[in-house]
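Write out the 3D structure for:
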Amino acid sequence: MTSNIDMNAIAERLQRLVAQAQLPEVEPGAHYGLPAFKVGGKSFVTVKNNETIVLALPIDRKEQLMEMAPEIYFQSDHYVGWPSLPTRIAAIGDDELQMRLIEAWRFRAPKKLRAAFDAG
């Protein structure tokens, strides 16, 4: 039972950071049955379990982040070759997490929405 509470707490943290970043048109939803946040119908962050979230990021950016902070960002066989970056939720601070959420949102957002956000 505690894992659901933990996953809910993680989802609440993500929701708070998304709101603080004022990312438009974000909707809570599910991605493969897991809690997720979406833009334009596409998931940009998924709560995988009570230790890991998965961010949608370009593969080259994913490689950079894993090199920069291997204690936070990692890869499992499941995600090799995919624009998805597993992230240790307990190891990442709110400021960095918010930056990654903005990056992931920008990666998944429709072009017009991204342009409007960047302009505003």
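The chain has one domain: 2-111.
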